[in-house]
Design goal:
By secondary structure, the chain is mainly beta. Helices cover 9% and strands 48% of the residues. The longest helix is centred in the N-terminal third of the chain and has 12 residues, at 2-13. The chain is globular and about 100 Å long.
């Protein structure tokens, strides 16, 4: 498949326009910032002869002046871009080609930048009362070794935290913005693509342990212009009652009216390394095993320790690889612009039956038929194939089958594995595949009948069709643990998922006086979400090639359907004074079908201010000279989160006997429902400032937030005698999240041949359950209790040891406390990142990033399971020789209270709940821009070669493989349980610009 993509991409590259006529005047060059990094999307124009263009992703521009306008005259070349000071240069027009490179002075704080997400009325950043953070995806994709949306978000913004579920190819990640505010509902943010509610689910239709796929993986980073993240109350008016966990708006690349035509092609290869050492399994030879002739016990004495590593012995792990090709073209004419792209990826994971394939195309078209109307249309088409191995505590998972094996079985049917009969072949033969096709059509109309009156209407769909199957192949060897699997089992599923968005926003602008402006915004938003899934299972296959449920001897099936609709009405008033003080007041009314017809509307108010103090003459006098820009802001607002179930009573179908020969269909009460259930309500205060210092060489942004979530949705226990099988949901309880977010960017060195800039971001987080109402604390290890984080770790602590004086190994014990108590946090309380870019001689760029998380814990269930349950780990078999008495008792007990009451080892996990603090060398990339003469050989205007890596080094005291992975499927857990860690990637990339 990849070879076909490569051939097509090279063919498209040949479409690059040929040399320009020598009679025309051609001006070309590269626009760079002070630190020598290329400036993409800069506007380059010669107003005197009415020609203009935009720089490409490499910062290069080409201006062609027609021969009839070339008269040897001097003209002014104007170069500008948001975040830079406009530069004007004098140039003489003459036939032929001349080169003119331009350096723009950067601004540390870009208050005039337009913000798309979470805004109504004036959209400049300086007018926004709350933080709307922006990731320049185009710039990051050029310099960083990333392959998906998670890579674009990882450690880019303070307060936005990502964590992977597994290191398998195609696996999902969790995203948290300013902590976890809900106990029962999702803490994942809403995702929009160009204003359309997007499918961002993490799901694999057939479970494979803690691993899941993600719909966010469908999107190609190369198609994304920027990502805007709404963290707090700015979401209230535009996103309403379902945005308490934050909003991520993905903005795709668009055309460039008047920008000519530009093409780019990139080819990338990744080597994917497993990045961990597989531990040996240990066993003890008994006389019985020696007499039986067990292979590793031959020649041993009873009590001798043996070891084996079936995963290494069978050469299970491989060096994975990713091959990627992306081609795109963008440009436009006088009244239109277009962008279209085509790309393909194929990634093979580090285990045999793990792969991820993605084929995608995107087309965006903007048309301006007249100055009052702008029409935007877009279509994204994506096809993915995700194959995942089984995982976690599973005898048919690679780690479960290998790490839980016993060396005393080497040479038998198990041969060192947990289960019998050719385990490598069996685990490799299992298939779990999701095939998805996704379409994202969108149309938007921007109509301005008068200068003071604007309308924007957006209609879009996100439609996903998924076909999935899970196959246990038929075999005669006995691979599987039941006859039903050994005769062959096929599970098939078909799922349709649709999201419809209709969004209207109007705005009336009025200048009340020369100093005061007024913007009144109003609108509505409708969202409909519909999922429909059908499942079928066939047992006893004719053969493994006929993978049809209909071809199986025994068949069962199931189906489920869900549909919700929400509608919201919003209004906002923004007043501006002297274009430096802005006051915003707004609100939104929402109603959702999830709450039935009787439900009250949900009101989300917002109020905020923004003050550009450095523009105030009376304030400017008191500011030090090194303070160039200063803005102060604050916002207070309300958001919510709606449940998808729990309002109406539900019943479960159940058969009953009519007579000895007939069975009828009946129901049993399942959940009594709660018609008074309402959304969780989050109220947040946010204050902060931004400042540009030392001639805009340093930018500093500081934000404090305090969010209180009330009306938490929890399950309230009811008596079993009520007849209902499930606990009803109620609104009760409260969670607090508060902390600081700090971002610093600096231009450290700006010389002719060397530029160096750096970025530092970090945040703190205090997460606490402050009220549970009349619900008792719950959770055995991850606890929900007042005064602690949501899902904080608890255990019974060891407070001392009794070491028997003559029989320490047999009669000693650990003395534990009577009740469990707080051990450590689930969520990091301090995390951040540092990244830096160096530019050498205008053609070499070096980029690196480090990130860290501290003050959180992770349950090393892999070690616990191997040591306590299977007893095949090194520390167990050498417990009496390599461990001290205290360490042996700490891990293995026995445990007793001070009163001598025995305590289960499952309640004492102090040895396995470990600090997860880490520092990771996340990214490194070296890019070399080829000389112009070399690029011309490829008919390109620019060519570059990049090499680098991702996840290169890890510093941590955690004894497991990776403190970042989380195989816990529950929202309130952090567990490392037989899970593949994050792989290391080595990256090579070639970029051509035409």
């Amino acid at each position: 498949m990849f070879r076909r993509f490569l051939f097509l991409g090279l063919a498209l590259a040949l479409l690059a326009p040929r040399g320009l006529s020598a009679q025309n005047a051609t001006i070309t060059g590269t626009v760079r910032g002070q630190t020598l990094g290329p400036v993409r999307g800069a506007y380059v124009a010669i107003p005197d002869v009415q020609v203009s263009t935009l720089t490409n992703d490499a910062g290069t521009y080409v201006l062609q002046v027609p021969a009839d306008r070339v008269r040897g005259q001097q003209v002014t070349l104007v170069v500008s871009n948001v975040g830079y000071r406009t530069q004007e240069l004098t140039v003489t027009l003459s036939p032929g080609t001349q080169r003119l490179d331009v350096t723009l002075q950067e601004s540390a704080i870009t208050l005039d930048e337009v913000v798309v997400t979470g805004t109504a009325g004036r959209q400049e950043r300086k007018a926004q009362a709350a933080v709307v953070a922006t990731i320049n995806a185009g710039n990051i994709a050029e310099v960083a070794p990333i392959t998906n949306i998670a890579g674009l978000l990882q450690s880019r913004l303070p307060g936005v935290s990502l964590q992977g579920a597994s290191g398998t190819a195609g696996a999902a990640q969790t995203i948290r913005i300013r902590g976890a505010a809900s106990i029962s509902l999702s803490n994942e943010p809403l995702v929009f693509i160009d204003g359309v509610r997007a499918d961002s689910r993490t799901s694999q239709l057939f479970a494979v342990g803690g691993q899941q796929g993600s719909r966010l993986n469908d999107l190609r980073p190369e198609d994304i212009e920027s990502i805007e993240v709404v963290k707090g109350p700015a979401a209230a008016t535009l996103y309403g009652a379902d945005a308490s966990a934050g909003v991520i708006q993905i903005i795709t690349k668009k055309g460039r009216a008047g920008g000519g035509f530009q093409q780019s092609i990139s080819v990338e290869y990744n080597s994917v390394d497993k990045n961990f050492d597989v531990p040996d399994n240990y066993g003890v030879c008994s006389q019985q095993l020696i007499n039986a002739g067990r292979q590793l016990c031959v020649g041993k004495n009873a009590g001798d320790i043996i070891s084996d590593n079936p995963l290494e012995r069978y050469d299970v792990f491989r060096t994975g690889q990713l091959r990627s090709l992306n081609w795109s073209g963008r440009g436009g004419g006088e009244n239109y612009g277009f962008y279209f792209s085509f790309g393909g990826d194929q990634e093979d994971g580090v285990v045999p039956n793990n792969e991820y394939q993605r084929l995608s195309g995107r087309f965006n078209f903007d048309f301006i038929p007249n100055p009052k109307l702008r029409v935007e249309a877009g279509l994204g088409l994506i096809r993915t194939r995700t194959q995942m191995p089984r995982n976690d505590n599973d005898i048919y998972g690679w780690l479960g089958g290998g790490l839980l094996g016993n060396p005393t079985t080497v040479g038998t049917a198990n041969d060192g594995w947990y289960a019998a009969n050719r385990q490598k072949e069996a685990i490799s033969a299992y298939e779990n595949v999701d095939n998805s096709v996704r379409a994202l059509p969108r149309i938007a109309l921007n109509y301005t009948p008068f200068d003071w009156f604007t309308h924007r209407l957006t209609v879009g769909l996100d439609m996903t069709r998924t076909e999935a199957y899970a196959l246990f192949p038929k075999n005669s060897i006995g691979w599987w643990d039941s006859r039903d699997l050994n005769v062959g089992q096929i599970q098939q599923a078909r799922q349709n998922s649709d999201r419809l968005t209709i969004d209207y926003l109007g705005n009336i602008s009025h200048r009340i006086s020369p100093a005061i402006t007024s913007d009144i915004s109003f609108g509505l938003q409708y969202t409909g979400i519909r999922t429909d899934a059908t499942f079928a299972t066939g047992i006893d296959l004719v053969n493994n090639e006929t993978r049809s449920v209909g071809a199986a001897a025994r068949r069962t099936g199931d189906q489920n359907f869900n549909e919700t609709r929400t509608i919201g009405f919003l209004g906002q008033w923004m007043a501006g004074v002297h274009d430096r003080f802005f006051l915003t007041v707004g609100g939104r009314l929402d109603q959702s079908s999830a709450f039935a017809q009787e439900a009250d509307v949900f009101f989300s108010p917002k109020v905020g201010f923004s003050y550009v103090a450095s523009d105030e003459p009376s304030v400017r006098e008191f500011l030090p000279e090194f303070v160039n820009t200063l803005r102060i802001r604050g916002a207070y607002g309300t958001t919510g989160r709606s449940p998808t179930e729990g309002i109406v009573a539900t019943y479960s179908p159940a058969p009953y006997v009519v007579d000895p020969t007939m069975v009828g269909g009946g129901v049993i009460p399942w959940n009594q429902g709660n018609t008074k259930l309402k959304p969780e309500r989050g109220t947040e205060l946010e204050v902060g400032f931004e400042t540009g210092l030392f001639n805009e060489r340093i930018g500093l942004e500081v934000t404090y937030f305090s969010k209180v979530t009330k009306d938490l949705i929890l399950e309230r226990p009811i008596p079993p005698s009520s007849g209902w099988q499930d606990q009803p949901f109620v609104n009760i309880g409260e969670v607090v999240n508060r902390g600081f977010e700090v971002a610093v960017n600096a231009q450290l060195v700006t010389t002719e041949n060397f530029g160096w800039d750096a970025r530092l971001g970090f945040n703190t987080l205090h997460n606490e359950v402050t009220d549970l109402g009349d619900v008792e604390p719950f959770g055995a290890m991850n606890r929900v209790e007042e005064g602690m984080q949501v899902g904080a770790f608890i255990t019974q602590f060891i407070k001392g040891y009794y070491i028997h004086p003559t029989h320490p190994q047999d009669s000693s014990y650990a003395i534990v406390e009577d009740a469990p108590r707080f051990l450590g946090n689930l969520l990091p309380t301090f995390e951040g990142s540092f990244s830096s870019t160096m530019n050498f001689f205008r053609n070499v760029q070096l980029y690196a990033q480090f990130d860290w998380k501290t003050d959180f814990y992770i349950y090393n269930n892999t070690a616990q399971f191997r040591e306590r349950q299977l007893r095949t780990a090194e520390k167990w078999v050498y417990r009496n020789t390599k461990l001290s008495d205290e360490e042996r008792l700490r891990r293995f007990g026995p445990f007793r209270t001070a009163d001598g009451v025995p305590v289960s080892s499952g309640a004492v996990n102090e040895a396995y709940i470990e600090p997860g603090d880490f520092l990771r060398f996340r990214e490194l990339m070296l890019t070399y821009s080829l000389p112009q003469s070399w690029a011309t050989a490829f008919r390109a205007s620019n060519a570059s070669i990049s090499v680098g890596g991702r996840n290169l080094a890890l510093w941590t005291k955690y004894s497991g493989w990776d403190p970042e992975v989380n195989s816990a499927t529950a929202a309130r857990g952090r567990s490392d349980f037989l899970t593949l860690p994050t792989p290391r990637r080595w990256v090579a990339r070639v970029n051509l610009q035409f």
